[in-house]
Model the fold of this input.
Amino acid sequence: MMKLSLADLTALKQQHQRISMVTAYDAPSARFADAAGIDAILVGDSAAMTIFGYDQTKAITLDDMLLLARAARRGTSRALLIADMPFGSVQVSDEVTVANAIRFVKDAGVDAVKIEGAGPMLRRIRAVIDAGIPVLGHIGLTPQSADQLGGFKPQGRTAATAHRLLDDAQALERVGCVAIVLEAMPEPVAARITSALTIPTIGIGAGARCDGQVLVWHDLLGLGGVPEGHGNRVRVPKFVKQYAALGPQIVKALESYIADVQAGRFPSAEHTYSMPDDERERFEADVPPSRERR
Ligand code: KIV
Done:
């Protein structure tokens, strides 16, 4: 299978074909996504929550993200691989941001990085693009600034804030972003932004009129929390469609395993190595049994 290029994303928009993207944080997940024919894999800083168990994304470090991106790279052959630049990796200066972005390319082999925000972030994004590294923008609900946005809430629900989102999207296109993630905003706003841009928009909670869609792996597969009755339930956002409920299946499989171990049903002969009878007899004659389980 031919590896996709970033130009293919723009071509998909021009051909009115929708782009599919999903997050993945390790090699097997990336391999599954790639085998399913996904267009782009995002090593999102949502890993802070889905993998590391924090309640927000700011906690994840650059080194954490690089580790996950390297793993995802090993599982990706056809899809584009994009990694989030985490909070702290883009705040200090243009130079530090570029150096951090270079690590994603050289250490993890990503095709592009994603940087949240516009306004003051535009110069950072331009610096990374000028260094030859493709950038995806991300506006709307930008989780790294959730505190300033009043929490994990939809954005652009007034004419004035919707205008600002459109301005931000156009500014991101002007500085050279290859695509923009639009997160948690009304569909008419995302639709206007999408038609105003030549680069693709990838929506999450932004309705069906974006050029593509992205979902978080754990949300899509129903892996977010432990099923009811086991405490610790995780709320799924309104915009998530769960295509499977793997969490309960995992708990059920583990419960069966525990029951088999406790009852001595596992391992059975088919999961056990044998040895030639004469070798076993010689061994057992040399070492008489003391306290063996039957
Ligand atoms: O970190 C992430 O998973 C993301 C997606 C929600 C777009 O940024």
Notes: Residues 229-233 have pLDDT under 50 and may be disordered. The pocket of 3-methyl-2-oxobutanoic acid is lined by residues 23, 42, 44-46, 84, 181, 183, 204, 214, 216 (CB under 6 Å). The CA atoms of residues 173 and 221 lie 32 Å apart.
